[in-house]
Amino acid sequence: MAERLVDVDGVNLSVEDRGAGRVIALVHGFPLDRAMWAAQIAALGGQFRVIAPDLRGFGKSSLAPDDAEQGVGMERYAADVAAVLDELGVTEPVVLAGLSMGGYAAWQFALRWPERLAGLVPCDTRAIADTEEARAGRLKMAEAALAAGDSSPALSMLPKLLGKSTHQSRPEIVAAVQAMIQRQTAEAVAAAQRGMARREDVRSRLKEIACPTLAIVGAEDVISSPAEMREFAAAMPQAKVVEIAGAGHMTTMENPAAVTQAIADFARSIDG
Q: Which of 30, 72, 135, 228 could disulfide-link 130, Cβ–Cβ 3.0 to 4.6 Å?
C-alpha cells in the first residue's frame, strides 16, 4: 500500500495507489471516504494498479476555503480525479468506477475526458438530477451539519444506505458505515450536498459515453434501484448491468467479493 498526497490548486488530496498494470480508479460515495473500497483495493491491487482518492474534504483530504459555502460541483470532483491521475503519471486510459456521488463525478469525467477512459463502472448511482424536494433536503442537511459542527445529520441516511438483509443480519457492516460517516467533517458534508443539489441531469447525454460500461447495482438498493440503473444503461452504447445479491446501496461493503469479481472481469474483458 502506498498513500500519496496530491496537491490540486492548494487542496491536498490523499490517495491510495497500489499494484501495477491496467489502472482502475475508484471514487467513493457520500458521506464516506475511500475506505468503502477497502476490500476492492486489497483484492484488485494484486492484479491491477488501483488508485483510490479521498475526494476533497473527505477522509484525509482537505477542502478549499470556500468549498463548504459554495458547494463542490460534480465537475470539480471529476477534475480532481483527473489531476490525481496526472500527478501519478497515468497517461493511458483507465477503468473508472464511481459509487453513488462518485458515480455523479464519473459521469462528468466521462463527458469531459472520454479519451482517458478504457471503461466506466457506475455503481449504485443515478443519471437524473434531484427533484425540488430532494434538492431542498440536501440544502437543509448542509445547513444542519454546519450548525452541528459535525456530520451527525448525515446519519439519517444510514437506513437507506444498506439493504434490509444487512440491517437484519450484519451489524458489523452497519457499524462500519456508521463510523465512516461519523468521521467526516461538517464542511465536507455541506460542500458535497450543495454540489449534488445542483448536479446535471445527464440522461440525455448518456449516448455520448461510448466506452464499455458496467453498471453495478445492489438487488436491495432503494436509492438507485436496479430498474432505474437498467433504464439508463439501456441508453448507453456499450453498457451492461450486474445485479449484486444480498446488497443495498453499499454493494462494495455488503457483498465485496461479488463487486470485486465483476470489476476484475470487466477490466480483463477490455484488455481481451
A: 135
Whether the model clears a pTM of 0.90, i.e. scores above it, the answer is yes
In Å, the largest CA–CA distance within the chain is: 52
- Is CATH 3.40.50.1820 the classification given to domain 2-270? yes
> Which grid cell is 111?
463527458
> Which residues are CB-neighbours of 250 under 8 A, at least 6 positions away?
29, 36, 99, 124, 161, 162, 166, 173, 177, 218
Domain locations in the chain as residue ranges: 2-270
Number of other CB atoms surrounding residue 161 within 10 Å: 28
Which pLDDT tens digit goes with each residue over 88-102? 999 999 999 999 999
